[in-house]
Amino acid sequence: MTIAPERSRTAGREPDVRRALDGVADPELDEPITDLGFVRSVAVADDGTVEVHLRLPTSFCSPSFAYLMAGDAKDAVSALPWVTRAVVQLDDHHDSELINRGLAADAGYLGTFGNEAESDLDGLRETFRRKAHTAAMERSLTGLLRADPDLAETALGTMTLADLPAGDRFTAALLQRRAALGLPEDPSALVLVDEHGQGYPPHEVPLRLRRARSTRISIDGNAHFCRGLLRTRYPGSESDQAARPEGAEATEPTFIPLSDLQEHPR
């Protein structure tokens, strides 16, 4: 089924769909699929049917990640009160046919992949929630160190949420990740904690901070890499990507579309 967007008389509903998709994140990159440029198209029919096409940086992106995002996208769109039918199609992936068939049948991950799936996606989702929290925690604590050069790393173990700048985007992101894990959000709660909300003794704080920094750098690096791969695979997709405040991207493009190289040899 293909719905021509230009023919739709309900095009005003497309922003509703895109806002709903803003809540769907790539689990590994901890960014909305809308900001990453993964939403290829949105079309709304007069009868309330919505068709969304997704694209990924490579054809071999993890099938479990791909299914998770596509499934979350279908759930988000289906939750809109005026939607009568949501169709989500993953394009150009080596498992597109299998995933799209499973989505259409609401078969779930295990029902779609059968014996190839070792378990459901709950464990995977939880793992990446913890990584996202770790990265957000590191960004906030590093912000405190930059704001006060005399602040010792060991002192970070006693910092509470009340010590973070109110209204700061890093603080807001951290609170959001803590909520996802069910960690306390009251002002007296420690910032540097494990996934159970437990703090660390002072002598462990520098090591825990370095490990958190490694996690954050890994997420930032993967995000930069995947954004570049998408722009290379789909020239013009950069116009669908939002600027990324976490992890600056290089001024000079790391990935140059092949069409550019053919037209402008370097």
From TrEMBL:
- Region Disordered, as annotated, extends over 236-266
Any idea where the MIP18 family-like domain is? 16-86
Q: Which domain of life is it from?
A: Bacteria
Pfam families, sorted: FeS_assembly_P (PF01883)
InterPro entries linked: MIP18-like (IPR002744)
| UniProt-recorded name of the protein | Iron-sulfur cluster assembly protein
